[in-house]
Amino acid sequence: MSTKNIMIVGVGGQGSLLASKLLGSLLTDEGYDVKVSEVHGMSQRGGSVVTYVRFGEKVYSPVISEGEADVIVSFEKLEAARHLKCLKKGGKIIVNTQEIDPMPVITGAAQYPDGIIEEIKAKGVFVDDIDALSLAEKAGNSKSVNIVLMGRVAKYFDIPYDKWIAAIEKNVKPQFVEVNKKAFELGYNA
After folding, report:
1. Please, what's the largest Cα pairwise distance for the chain?
2. Rg (CA), the chain
3. What is the Cα–Cα distance from 131 to 97, expressed in whole angstroms?
4. How confident is the model over 12-41, as a mean pLDDT?
5. Is 40 helix (H, G, I), strand (E, B) or coil?
6. Rounded to two decimals, what is the model's pTM?
7. Which helix (H) or strand (E) holds 71?
8. Separation between Cα atoms, residue 36 and residue 34, nearest integer Å
9. What is the mean pLDDT of the segment spanning 9-20?
10. For 90, left (φ over 0), alpha (ψ -120 to 50), or beta?
11. 59 falls in which pLDDT band (50, 70, 90)?
12. What is the H or E stretch that residue 46 is in?
């Protein structure tokens, strides 16, 4: 099996690191060689956070280069546009339709761009856009956006649903397991 590359991109505080931990754990349990690498920007101030998850028979490097990502999971629309160059031809982007203003927008130096998802689709890219925030709130915790998105990602993997649930139970604090299982289910069935 060739190495598969997944980028998880978002803004600090959205739970992208838990999502990558869950995915890495699941893939390791499935018998793959897995490398996970985290790149923290100004995450504590709402800056970009990027995580690479690479898996296959044997993975030698944790880093995904431009044009190598099979899947990009974006926790925010602008982050999807920012990392589009990393997607390989024929790759997929799963994107939360939420907008989180970056610092230039907050300070009034720039405006949040309109039509981001439409522009990405116009380039011929497969985009699965989902309102993960609304689904997380429906599950009972707005911070479960990450798990809603993992539920959506699961649709594109040939790994049984119950194994994803087991990974949630293994990687999420006990008091948050039930709400995250509900969030996963909502993302999976959206």
Report:
1. 49
2. 16
3. 5
4. 89
5. strand
6. 0.93
7. strand 69-74
8. 7
9. 86
10. left
11. very high
12. none
User: Residues 153, 157, 39, CA angle at the centre, nearest 5°?
Assistant: 50
Q: For position 38, what pLDDT does the model report? A: 80
Query: pLDDT confidence of 46, banded at 50, 70, 90?
Result: low
Instruction: Output the CA angle 90-92-96, nearest 5 degrees.
Output: 160
Q: Give burial (CB, 10 Å; 0-12/13-18/19+) of 150.
A: buried
Distance CA 74, CA 66 (A): 16
Task: Give residue 168's identity as a one-letter amino acid code.
Answer: I
Tokens 């030698």 correspond to what residue?
60
The DSSP bridge partners found for residue 4 are 55
DSSP state of 86: G
Report how far apart, in Å, the C-alpha atoms of 104 and of each of 14, 40, 98, 145 are: 19, 19, 17, 24
Domains of the chain (ranges; CATH) run 4-189 (3.40.920.10)
d(CA 135, CA 15): 15
57: Cα separation from own chain's centroid: 22
User: How many CB atoms are located within 10 Å of the residue 168 CB?
Assistant: 22
Q: How far is 29 from 101, CA to CA, in rounded Å?
A: 37
